[in-house]
């Protein structure tokens, strides 16, 4: 299934306090209110969704957990994640990367899918992924969920853990020699039959930049 997304990167809605230094007069910098992000909430499950406008719709993947955490992935024309909309359980929606105006997303439609079960023992093996901006990462995934660099211009290592979102496990990655990608990111390892021939997808960020690596068995 091709997912082509046409909407631009949008924004991060959260309240960030700007830390101002004290002067002799005791003045300080006032807190800055960032634009808000609102995304239609769906019940727990995995969905293919349409969003945008009727004249220029986009499609996406939406994951919702029973604890209230959610993830909406918006891709670019090359099927790489362009914007992530994330909601922690009980928290506000956030967007990575941030943009410059308030966002309110109402879905045109949502089609429930059957979420995959992530079996790390069955996924264990050696993989190669194209790195955004050029180069490759060759790495191994062990049955215990650990990832280790095994070649390529981008050195990738990390570990996995429990995640609430359907079809996923949590992942913490350390990257070296990967161009403009961040050195450390957190996110999810996603499994979906629609990703074939890729076996899985490493989707993570550092709060500012999205890292999207599609893993192909070597």
From TrEMBL:
Keyword Signal: yes
Domain of life: Bacteria
Signal in keyword set: yes
Leader sequence segment: 1-17
Protein's name according to its UniProt entry: Lipoprotein
Keywords of the record: Signal
């Amino acid at each position: 299934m091709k997912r082509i997304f046409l909407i631009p990167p949008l924004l991060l809605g959260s309240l960030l306090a700007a830390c101002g230094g004290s002067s002799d007069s005791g003045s300080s910098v006032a807190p800055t209110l960032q634009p808000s992000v609102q995304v239609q909430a769906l019940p727990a499950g995995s969905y293919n969704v349409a969003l945008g406008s009727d004249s220029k719709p986009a499609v996406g993947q939406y994951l919702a957990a029973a604890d209230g955490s959610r993830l909406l992935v918006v891709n670019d024309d090359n099927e790489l994640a362009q914007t992530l909309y994330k909601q922690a359980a009980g928290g506000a929606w956030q967007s990575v990367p941030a943009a410059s105006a308030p966002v309110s997303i109402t879905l045109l439609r949502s089609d429930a899918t059957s979420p995959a079960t992530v079996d790390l023992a069955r996924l264990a093996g050696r993989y190669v992924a194209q790195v955004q901006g050029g180069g490759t990462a060759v790495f191994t995934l062990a049955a215990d969920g650990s990832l280790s660099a095994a070649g390529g211009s981008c050195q990738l290592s990390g570990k996995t853990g429990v995640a609430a979102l359907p079809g996923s496990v949590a992942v913490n990655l350390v990257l070296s020699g990967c161009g403009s990608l961040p050195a450390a990111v957190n996110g999810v390892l996603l499994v979906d039959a629609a990703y074939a021939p890729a076996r899985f997808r490493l989707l993570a960020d550092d709060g500012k930049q999205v890292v999207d690596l599609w893993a192909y068995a070597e």
